[in-house]
């Protein structure tokens, strides 16, 4: 199951599906795998800038097997990538950064959902009705050369923001730097958002992502649990 959370495995799988079903997989940002696609990254960014001089992109670089925000950084130009040694020994995915995220209380946040993959054949997926929202601890501003390195503004990882002086521990689900996802849905509903449609879209995104990864997962599963051998009796969370 660790293959599911590796950035390169996920990126390859979803990009393959984007080629086959572009409209169904349009939720995934443009991405390139480093170091092997670095020349392609440079060329494509140059072409896109030439065709649209007003395009001022920001990119986010994420180590393949990283977690807790370790090694993630933002860049404005391909030349800013740290190619010295680390990228060779530690492959990464670079993606177009979403510069205008939805904000709550002027803060960027993410959503952590809990999905149980019970079976690959048949494909059986369960999703918890509530999740977690993790907040940045500095008010969000669009990326500039001056604020690119402000992790408390751009990265939502708890393991990073817990070290911020602005981190808020709270017993109230509606405040603080960690909140329930249901409290976010309530806020969005009060803004006029169609929460039922949002949940439907989220479930669709979860299913499509797992479908993209299923071929890879089946290979790993069958190598660990050959046909006829009893399956696992526990789940990884």
UniProtKB/TrEMBL annotation:
<dbReference type="GO" id="GO:0036064">
    <property type="term" value="C:ciliary basal body"/>
</dbReference>
<keyword id="KW-0067">ATP-binding</keyword>
<dbReference type="Pfam" id="PF03133">
    <property type="entry name" value="TTL"/>
</dbReference>
<dbReference type="GO" id="GO:0015631">
    <property type="term" value="F:tubulin binding"/>
</dbReference>
<dbReference type="InterPro" id="IPR004344">
    <property type="entry name" value="TTL/TTLL_fam"/>
</dbReference>
<dbReference type="GO" id="GO:0000226">
    <property type="term" value="P:microtubule cytoskeleton organization"/>
</dbReference>
<protein>
    <submittedName>
        <fullName>TTL11 polyglutamylase</fullName>
    </submittedName>
</protein>
<dbReference type="GO" id="GO:0005524">
    <property type="term" value="F:ATP binding"/>
</dbReference>
<dbReference type="GO" id="GO:0070740">
    <property type="term" value="F:tubulin-glutamic acid ligase activity"/>
</dbReference>
<keyword id="KW-0547">Nucleotide-binding</keyword>
<keyword id="KW-0436">Ligase</keyword>
